[in-house]
Amino acid sequence: MDVRLPETDLVIFDCDGVLVDSEELSCRCLSDALGQAGVAMSTERALELFLGRSSAAVIEYCQQAGRPLPATFLTDLALKVRETFSAQLKPIAGVAAVLDELQLPHCVASSSDLARVKYSLELTGLAAYFGPRLYTSQMVARGKPAPDLFLHAAARMAVAPRRTLVIEDSVSGVTAAKAAGMKVWGFTGGAHYRAQDGSGLLRNAGADRIFAAMTDFWTEG
């Protein structure tokens, strides 16, 4: 038990924008890949529409817009993301120190595919903190903002939702955690929030607490 996190038996971390500073990078890649597929979309619009969402949401959006994507789209996007990450991806500042101190069971629940999550954590030196405790939208019927992924992660970790704390950076992730009956803290320290008020977005989505730096993780507020 960690006395600094009362009534909590499990901490679930989102990956992109919480553990690794990847949201802006990945949405830039998405914007480029969509452009190559004939769908014009700025990085800012991609962040607005797909922050915290799975690739399935992108496919669905384009289908509904009457612009179905080519069969090679996800493969092309994955290659672009991997190339960009290998050159530019960094861990969120201070997150390793939080994980070093955390005494509770913890895991990852991400909208990204499993291969990308593993690569991101290995590249940034965070993989050892989680081992095989990685859960992704591929494992459930519905991705965020549905609660399925967080409920799946808690079930696999054998912890009740009401005893679970989620750390999220997106509206869809906060919405999913609240729908799962979990506590959720909104994190706004990623590069994608430099140009907008992430705290207002996450608070309106239902976050129980907002913090902007991992150095404040253990600070009450």
What does this structure look like?
The relative contact order is 0.18. By secondary structure, this protein is of the alpha/beta class. It has a 6-stranded parallel β-sheet with strand order 3-2-1-4-5-6, with helices on both faces. The chain folds into 2 domains: 10-21 and 90-216, Rossmann fold (3-Layer(aba) Sandwich), CATH 3.40.50.1000; 24-88, Putative phosphatase, domain 2 (DNA polymerase, domain 1, Orthogonal Bundle), CATH 1.10.150. It is built from 9 helices and 6 strands, in the order βαααααβαβαβαβαβ.
Summarize it.
The chain is built from 9 helices and 6 strands, in the order βαααααβαβαβαβαβ. With 221 residues, it is α/β, with parallel strands linked by helices. The chain has 2 domains: 10-21 and 90-216, 3-Layer(aba) Sandwich (Rossmann fold), CATH 3.40.50.1000; 24-88, DNA polymerase, domain 1, CATH 1.10.150.
Topology:
Blueprint: E1 10-13, H1 23-36, H2 43-50, H3 55-64, H4 73-88, H5 95-101, E2 106-110, H6 114-123, E3 134-136, H7 148-156, E4 164-168, H8 171-179, E5 183-187, H9 198-205, E6 209-211
Parallel strand pairs: 1-2, 1-4, 2-3, 4-5, 5-6
